[in-house]
C-alpha cells in the first residue's frame, strides 16, 4: 500500500535548504515538500527557512496594525461614511492577509498538513485580492467625491459603496477558493507557478488582473489630479496671485501625495506581478522571496496612508489610546493634501 509523500514546510521550494543557494531549482511556493529518501520522516531535521520567518513577522505586524484600524472604525459610530467603510474594508482585508501569513507559517512547520496549508494559501490569496480591490474602490470613491461634489453625500452613494463592497469581497472569495477546490498543482508538479500550489494559469489570471486594476487606478488618479488642479487654479485666479496662493501650494502637495500613494502601490506589487508572469517553478527560490516580501509590505503601509493620516480616525485613535484629543489634531483643517 503506497504512502503519501510527507510534507516539509516551506513556501517556495521542495528542497528545504534551497533558499540558501539561489540556484536554478524548484521555486514554487511549496505547501508540500519531499524530504530525502535516506531518512524516515520522523528523523528529518526541521529546517526553518529564514524567508518564512520574515513573512511571518510581516504578517504579525500587518495583523496588529490593521486590527487597530478595524477596531477604531467598528467602535466609533461616527465613522460610517462610505469613505470609512472602504478604509475599513481595506484594513480588514490586510488584517486577514496578515493572519493568513502567520497561519501558513504555523501550519507549514507544526501541522504539516496539505489541507490546512491549502486553506491558509486560499485565505492569503483572497485577502490580498480584497486588499487590492479595496484600494481600487477607495480610488473610485475619491474620484466620485470630487466629480460629483454636490450630490456625493447621498443615499445613492451609500448604496453604491455597499454594492462595491459586496462585489469586491465576493470576487476575492472566489479567487481564494480556487486552490482549495482543486485548481492547484499538487497532483502535477509541471503546472506549478512560482507560488505553490497555484498553477501557472491561476497566477497569470491574478497578475493580469492586477495590471488591469493598476491601469484603471492610474487613469482615475490622473483625472483626480486634473480636477484638483483645475479647482485650485480657479481659486488662485480669484486671489489674483497664482504662485503665492496657499490653496495652490497645498493642492500641489495633495497631487504629490497622490503620486506617492500610487508609486508606493506599484513599487510593492509590480516586481512580484511581472516576475510571476515570466517565471515558473524552476526559477531560483531567492527571486520569488525577494519579490513576494515587498508585496506584503504594501499591507503595512496601507494603514499609514489611508487610515492614520485621516483626521477623524486620528481623533478616534487618540480617544482610544488616552481618552483625549490634542488641540492640534482637533483644530486641523482638511486640505487638498488629504485626498
Overview features:
mainly alpha
Helicity level: 55-70%
- Distance linking N and C termini: 64 Å
Number of strands: 0
Largest sheet: none
Mean pLDDT: 79
The unreliable regions are 1-9, 13-38
β-sheet strand percentage: under 5%
Secondary-structure element series: HHHHHHHHH
Q: Count the helices. How many? A: 9
Structural class by secondary-structure content: mainly alpha
Shape: globular
Radius of gyration: 23 Å
Provide a descriptive summary of the structure in words.
This protein is an all-alpha fold and 339 residues long. The chain has helices spanning 50-75, 82-111, 114-147, 155-180, 200-238, 246-278, 285-307, 311-322, 327-330. α2 packs antiparallel against α3 (114-147), α2 packs parallel to α4 and α3 (114-147) runs parallel beside α5. The longest helix has 39 residues, at 200-238. The chain starts with 49 loop residues before the first helix and ends in a 9-residue tail after the last helix.
Topology:
Layout: H1 50-75, H2 82-111, H3 114-147, H4 155-180, H5 200-238, H6 246-278, H7 285-307, H8 311-322, H9 327-330
Helix pairs in contact: 1-2, 1-7, 2-3, 2-4, 2-7, 3-4, 3-5, 5-6, 6-7
Give a brief outline of the structure.
This protein has helices at 50-75, 82-111, 114-147, 155-180, 200-238, 246-278, 285-307, 311-322, 327-330.
